[in-house]
Write a structure and sequence with these properties.
Chain lengths: 265, 256
């Protein structure tokens, strides 16, 4: 009985190995890249948490346009990702939510070429559906009893929040400083806080659970999103193709649909 | 003596010790004094010590009676209860944090009632940190104390009972002194686990300096921008835990 099970499992593993070998052997027709080299194989993209929804969509489109590629994402706060890159994380592309969090990577010489700005994003006040805290403006966030989640200042959404709050002259004590924007958004979704400063795109992506309150001071804290191929890229050809796709008209259309603004001309 | 065991044993030791030496090797010794004096370090350390101690006291108050019930009272479903008690031991702490939010959060099963009735909200408070740490650490105490109770000679309790001592007097005057080393060992383990708690804390209590940002959270966030600061914080945490564990081990937990 046990012997049969083992044999079946072995046969399964063997079949899987064959299938994998088949993939690697390349019966699919290669899609030409910009330089004419084959665009195929895995691409690992480290991307700011605020890119979660739009990059998943772009990744699917990219895989459809380039059969034989698989795009794997790791989303986190940009500063955490920058640290991972500089500690040698095996990744091909890095997309950050601010130039400030891209800089450690370029300074350390871990970028292959200059980062390109592919989108801009700005903050809104995310409130739970129905706005139980009655938040209508940035100044409302300082009312006693109104609990606010912000991003930590290391991450771009936190830095932008600091800029916007300073611009508005609002001194705010949040209840928590989250390590990425999705963490701040999650506290709103759970109803644990009355408001959080998140990107417009995050509020849009969670529109079924949160409402977005626009505020004028956010125009003073607009983030540029840079993207770059990494020096340690194991698959530079596909990495360049992915970056080109993000910067293409189709990439821009997907980003705009998610609520991003196009980069400054 | 099988020599073949020495090789994996040595590898195991190296595996456990090597990362710690890495921490020491990369430490910025030259700037250490200034970095230790940075206000954030002391704030996080104080909060960590305070909450770990608070969590241990909470665990002692609830966990010792629970261990006593498991060890001394026969009731149907005892094995199930014992299994339930150990669940936080195997549960990823971040899952514990989510579970705590769903119960003690503002919209949680109990949290909504606590907020409406007493105006008490636990997430994002220091009390919330204590709760998260206690949730994760209590099984260590319960298991240690239950083990001690089972190993203790129950004839002393029977003797106390025959001499007219009530159950409460027997418990406080005979049982507890008998298992004191076990309780102490459990409390030390519990404290150490609470001190290192990360996942449940950041999920349930959030992160704010001075209120809910304990040392492990400070290490995690420092790592994103300042590797050296993270190393310094890690060293502090390492020193404190090793010092206290070593100190208490000599006094209470005597090994062979």
């Amino acid at each position: 009985m046990t012997g049969t099970t083992t044999r079946t499992a072995l046969a399964g593993a063997f079949a899987l190995a064959l299938a994998l070998a088949g993939c690697a052997g390349g019966s699919d027709r290669p899609a030409p890249g910009e330089s004419g080299a084959e665009v195929r194989g895995p691409v690992t993209v480290l991307a700011a948490a605020s890119l979660t929804e739009s990059f998943h969509r772009l990744g699917d489109e990219f895989e459809a346009a380039h059969p034989g590629t698989t795009v794997t994402f790791s989303f986190a706060g940009s500063s955490a990702l920058a640290t991972q890159v500089n500690q040698g994380a095996p990744a091909d592309v890095f997309a950050a939510a601010s130039p400030a969090t891209m800089r450690p990577v370029t300074d350390a010489g871990n970028a292959a070429g200059e980062p390109a700005t592919f989108a801009r994003n700005q903050l809104v006040i995310a409130v739970p559906k129905g706005n139980p805290g009655g938040v209508g403006a940035l100044a409302d966030l300082t009312r006693p009893g109104v609990k606010v989640a912000l991003c930590a200042e290391q991450v771009p959404c936190g830095a932008a929040a600091r800029t916007a709050l300073d611009a508005a002259g609002v001194a705010l004590t949040p209840v928590t400083l989250e390590s990425d924007v999705k963490g701040a958004l999650a506290k709103v979704r759970l109803g644990e806080v009355d408001a959080a400063l998140v990107y417009r795109t995050d509020a849009t992506a969670a529109a079924s659970q949160v409402d977005a309150v626009e505020f004028p001071e956010s125009a003073r804290a607009v983030n540029d999103y840079p993207i770059v191929v990494l020096r340690q890229a194991g698959n530079p050809t596909a990495a360049r193709a992915f970056v080109a796709y993000v910067l293409s008209d189709r990439g821009r259309a997907a980003l705009t649909a998610a609520g991003f603004q196009p980069p400054r001309a | 003596m099988p020599v073949a065991l020495f090789v994996p044993a040595g590898l195991g030791l190296a595996f456990l010790v090597l990362p710690l030496t890495g921490l020491l090797a990369r430490a910025p010794w030259a700037t250490l004094p200034q970095r230790l004096a940075a206000p954030g370090v002391l704030t996080a350390l104080r909060l960590s010590l305070l909450t770990a101690t608070g969590a241990t006291l909470l665990c002692l108050a609830l966990g010792v009676p629970l261990a006593w019930v498991l060890a001394r009272v026969r009731f149907p479903g005892r094995r199930l209860v014992r299994a339930l008690v150990t669940v936080p031991l195997v549960l990823p702490p971040v899952v514990g944090g989510v579970a705590l939010l769903l119960v003690f959060g503002r919209r949680g099963l109990l949290g909504g009632w606590l907020d409406a009735t007493f105006g008490v909200t636990l997430p994002f408070t220091t009390a919330g940190v204590v709760l998260a740490e206690a949730f994760v650490a209590m099984p260590f105490l319960v298991i240690a104390v239950e083990g001690a109770l089972r190993a203790a000679d129950s004839r002393y309790e029977e003797a106390a009972a025959t001499l007219g001592a009530g159950r409460w007097t027997t418990f406080t005057h005979v049982t507890l002194p008998l298992v004191a080393p076990g309780v102490a060992a459990g409390a030390v383990l519990c404290w150490a686990r609470a001190l290192g708690e990360f996942g449940a804390t950041i999920t349930f209590a959030g992160n704010f300096p001075g209120r809910t940002q304990t040392m492990p959270l400070a290490v995690y966030l420092a790592l994103e921008t300042d590797l050296e600061a993270a190393i310094v914080l890690s060293l502090v945490l390492l020193t404190v835990s090793v010092a206290i564990l070593a100190g208490l081990r000599d006094r209470w937990v005597t090994g062979p």
